[in-house]
Design brief:
Blueprint (H helix, E strand, L loop, with lengths): L1 H17 L5 H16 L6 H19 L17 E6 L8 H10 L2 E6 L4 H15 L5 H21 L5 E6 L2 E6 H8 L11
Parallel strand pairs: 1-2
Antiparallel strand pairs: 1-3, 3-4
Amino acid sequence: MAFLFGAELYLSVVEFFYLKGECPLCIAFLGLLGLSLVLGLGYLGWKEVFAFGLFGFLGLHFLYFPLGFVPRGGVPFQGEGVISVYLKPGQEGELRELVELSRKRGFEVLLHYLGSRPSERHKALKQICRALFAEEDGFALRVAERILRENEEKAKKFGLKTPFVVIKTNGEEEVLSLEDALWHLEGFVPLNSPIR
């Protein structure tokens, strides 16, 4: 129980401080584990409980984040209230108006970098690394490469000229050009989602 509590505590730390989100089910599970642990203290002493809890916490840390991998805070969830923008490096300046309008409307803008030429791919990988990792090392570049491939596969499905926008509302994805997205956002009622 102590091991599970330590592991769940670690996941909760990642959830709150790195992902900036909260899951009521996860919080309830952590609370139940903590309560069970307190009720079961008659079987083990505090030292054993602390040791097992620490083992679970650190065990999960090394399972999820190998040495040298330090995630940046604020990695957003992709869901309702999120505007996904697919763009190539260097197109960020075109998004200024979209970002300002989305903030007013309570949306969060999430950038998905693409690159068709080798120089663009290299810059896209660096942008993804900067957004997700504190350090750019081999592990960070491998994760960024996987994300870049996923972005490219999804962009092929949409088949629009970059930058283009994907807005998810009521479980439906709507794919728009940047100009259409600006016009479309004018009609949205502000959401209560956090802006990161």
